[in-house]
Amino acid sequence: MDTTLAKWVVRGSEVKRRAALFVLIILLAAGTALAQFTPFEAAIAKFDAEVAAGVAADAAGCVTVAVFIGDKIIWSKGYGWADIEKRIAATPDTIGRIGSITKSFTAVTLMQIAERGILEIDDPVERYFAEIKGLANPPPNLRPITFRMLASHTAGLIREPQLPGAATGTIYRWEDKILESIPKTSFGTPPMTEYSYSNIGFGILGLAISRAAKVPYMELVTEQILKPLGMSSSTFILNKPELWARMSVGYIREREQETDDVITVHDEFDQTWVCYHKHVLDGIINVTLGEGVIFPVRNKGFIVHSTDALCP
To answer: Which of 62, 115, 131, 262 could lock onto 90 through a cystine, CB 3.0 to 4.6 A?
Structure first.
C-alpha cells in the first residue's frame, strides 16, 4: 500500500473511532440526564407543554398555574399575556379577578362568625336583616329564609334580580344595589325544594352577615381571612398603583361569531383604582395565583364552590 494512502486510512480510522467515542459520550450523558428526570419532573414538563399549547391556541388573555403539596407551592408559572396591547406577560404574581369564587370567602366568613356565636346558620336572616322580607312574589306559606339556605343556594331565589344594571357600578354602592334589588328579586321555587344557583342570594347573604356582625362586609373579610392568611395582594379595591400595575386585563372570545375575534373587556377605573365591575359582592375580590392557593389550603379545602358543609 502506498505510504500516503496508508496514512489516510489510519487517519480515517482514527476519525471514525473518535466520532464513535464522541457519540457514545453523548448517549451516556443523555442517559444520565434521563435517569435524573424524575416522574414528577416528567409530569410537570408534559403538563407545562399542554397548558402552553392550549393558551397559545386560544390566543386570548392569560393563565397562571400552580402545583402545591400541603400548603407549599412547589411549581408555578404564568402563560399568555396579562395585557395583550401592552405586551405584558403573565407571571405567578399577576392579579386576576376571581369572580364567583368570592362566594367562598363569603361562606367562610359566615361560618367564622357562627363559630364566634354571633349567629346560627339556621337563624332566620330577617332577624338581622329585615329588608329580606321585601322579596317579590313570595310563595304561599313561605318559611323564613335562613343563612344556610342562602349559602347553599336552596332559598329558592332567582339567579339575578329583575333590575337593569343591578350587578354593575362602583363598589362603594354595593349595599345600595342589594337593597334596590330585593324588591325586584322573586322566587323560582319554594325554599328548600331544590338547588338553584343565585348571585343575588349571595349578595343578600353578604349584607346580612355584615349586619349581624355589625362590621362592613369588606372589612369583615379582610380582617378575618385576607390579613390572617397574609394575602397582601388580595383586595376588593385596587387602591395602590403597584397592585393596579399587576392587574390582568379581561378578555372574552366571541366564539359564535365567524371571525372568532378576541374582545378586550376593560372595566372602568377611577383615579383611586376603584373597580366598576359586574357582579358587585359575589365576584369582586382580586387575587394572585399564590394567594388563591393559600385560601383553600389553609381552610382545608373548605367550601370552595361546595355546599357540603352547609347542607343538612
So the answer is: 62
